[in-house]
Specification:
Blueprint: H1 17-30, H2 35-40, H3 44-59, H4 66-80, H5 83-97, H6 100-109, H7 117-131, H8 138-147, H9 151-174
Helix pairs in contact: 3-9, 4-5, 4-6, 4-7, 4-9, 5-6, 7-8, 7-9
Amino acid sequence: MTGKITALDLGLGELSEATKTYFAKCEEKLGLVPNVLRAYAFDDKKLRAFTDMYNDLMLADSGLSKLEREMIAVAVSSINHCYYCLTAHGAAVRQLSGDPALGEMMVMNFRAADLSPKQTAMLEFAVKLTEEPAKIVEADRVALRKAGFTDRDIWDIASTAAFFNMSNRVAAAIDMRPNDEYHAMAR
């Protein structure tokens, strides 16, 4: 598929009125309809499930800042080499941090970035959960607590990492490409 993934490209018919309305809201707020949403547009129920989970994890109240959640998305996507998410969420890190270099560093190697010890602990946990989930032990959670995270924060770190592992795999499976606009954002 190309960067213009739509339900119509998938041969699945016209967009529902609810999806058209949602996409119009995206255009208004973001200036684009993210291709990941277009990829789910063939099924309103799947689109709603994806957006509900995404919005809960990335935008709802949390002990993690929006920037920290985006950093998790990028660290996980870097391990998984997800072009879509590295481009889209790298842009979000640039935008939320006000630092284009941080966004690029996160995409390439978060360990080389100038991060706080707390952020580093968070990302190391997300990466371990991505690479070796069966090796997560109580000592890993204790390290997060020592860094200043609550048990609820640990849930949010894990849930965000898990969501992006799933999203990365779907993106790879269908050759999802990022919107061209992401490449120029927050530079």
